[in-house]
Design brief:
Elements lengths: L13 E3 L3 E4 L3 H12 L4 E4 L16 E2 L14 H9 L10 H6 L5 H6 L5 E2 L2 H14 L3 E3 L3 E8 L2 E9 L2 E5 L3 E4 L5 H5 L4 E3 L10 E5 L2 E5 L8 H6 L15 H25 L4 E5 L9 E3 L17 E6 L7 E5 L11 E3 L8 H7 L2 H17 L8 H10 L11
Helix pairs in contact: 1-10, 2-10, 10-11
């Protein structure tokens, strides 16, 4: 008879006792780790790949979407802006609107509103290395090739996080945790309430190429298009299927389908351009929305321009001009857990709002807020919001829409 389960009995060595453990090295994790370290905390950042940036680098979604409302006002500040500037420090191809914003004063509202939004295409490898150096300079310990396999929760605190590395299985005993995995992995493992993205994800197959037209990014399938771009040139889907993004076999299938689409596209391009070659392909599945926390508060798309008294920063709608959202602190943590907060694309929002909050600027905003909160308390639920807001303001974050230029 085939066994359905195998019982394990083992002793696991303790690897570290960080004051703040950040799981996931995407933009949210980078921001969270940097914010906590700059406030003097001992921070460990664990990342399953060997490159920081998540979907923005390994996934080749190398578009730093807008920090502005599309009407001339910057709305996301602090680390969201710092990381954008870092992304173009070594290289900027001039695409999108970053030069318009970096060369004109905030008072030049008409100039900014008439031009492109505050966004840019960036080089994934150069950003990842620059981010790595920035974190190391801040004293963050980075542990690559590391995945969380389990957590041990005692009542309302997570006591132990189990990880797997090349060296084997270890235990990490953190005081505070930021779940920036993108899939709310730690929240799910801790038994906190989570929710799945009902529509699922469409197949994507992005790659960089070189040929007669030069060097560029070729997005295929699931592409982040604004309403204006969709009206001009909508991108065709690669498949009618949708994918949850939370199963190993499904993700393996998605990867194979993506690779096949890239190969077919390259073969087609080479018929008219023999010099056409793929330079790099995405090395992680391009899943945007999978699983999220159900937090103390759930933000909805209908709360546009609404004042949130516990705001930890603002974000815009990358898809269209005008909307501004204040992000409530309650979207980051669960009432059931004292020492875990989420950041990035797994915070507590409704399905319609999820498509807005999953992108790089929003991940950076929530990452900074979560990392700052982790440095200021031992219980996210008990942290006075005014204390968190004061620190965020000191670090350059603008909290409310009526404070904008």
């Amino acid at each position: 008879m085939t066994e359905s389960y195998v019982k394990e009995v083992r002793q696991t060595p303790v690897l570290a006792r960080p004051e703040v453990l950040v799981a996931g090295g995407g933009f949210a994790g980078i921001a969270a780790a940097l914010a906590a370290a700059r406030l003097g905390k001992k921070v460990m950042l664990i990342e399953r790949m060997f490159l920081l940036g998540g979907l923005g680098t390994s996934g080749l979604v190398t578009i730093y979407l807008p920090l502005c409302d599309g009407q001339g006002r910057q709305v996301s500040f602090g680390l969201a802006e710092e990381l954008l500037r870092l992304s173009v420090r070594e290289h900027c191809d001039g695409a999108r609107g970053v030069e318009n914003w970096l060369t004109h004063r905030p008072s030049d509202l008409a100039t900014r509103a008439a031009g492109h939004r505050f966004e840019v295409n960036f080089n994934p490898q150069l950003f990842a290395i620059s981010a790595e150096q920035t974190l190391l300079d801040a004293g963050v310990e980075i542990l690559y090739g590391t995945v969380v396999t389990a957590v041990e929760r005692e009542e309302d605190r997570i006591r132990t996080v189990y990880i797997e590395t090349k060296g084997g299985r270890y235990a990490v005993l953190p005081e505070m945790i930021v779940d920036a995995t993108g899939d709310a992995d730690l929240a799910y493992m801790a038994g906190l309430e989570t929710a799945l993205y009902a529509p699922g994800n469409h197949l994507a197959a992005w790659y960089y190429y070189s040929g007669k037209e030069g060097y560029g990014l070729k997005p295929m399938g699931m592409v982040d298009q604004t309403e204006e771009e969709m009206a001009r040139n909508p991108v065709s889907r690669l498949s009618t299927r949708s994918f949850r993004g939370l199963d190993g076999r499904e993700l393996s299938e998605v990867t194979c389908l993506s690779h096949a689409a890239i190969l077919n596209d390259v073969r087609r391009k080479k018929e008219s351009d023999p010099t056409y070659e793929p330079v790099t392909v995405a090395t992680i599945p391009q899943m945007r929305m999978t699983r999220r926390l159900v937090g103390a508060y759930t933000l909805d798309e209908g709360e546009v321009h609404k004042r949130q008294e516990d705001s930890v920063g603002m974000v815009s709608d990358w898809r269209k001009r005008g909307p501004v959202f204040e992000v409530p602190y309650g979207t980051l943590y669960s009432p059931a857990c004292a020492n875990l907060a989420t950041a990035g694309r797994c915070t507590s929002v409704t399905d319609p709002m999820w498509d807005i909050m999953r992108v790089i600027p929003c991940c950076s905003v929530t990452g900074q807020a979560a990392g700052t909160a982790a440095a200021l308390c031992r219980d996210y639920r008990q942290l006075p919001v005014s204390t968190l807001q004061n620190q965020l303001q000191m670090d350059g974050v603008v909290l409310h829409e009526d404070e904008l230029v």
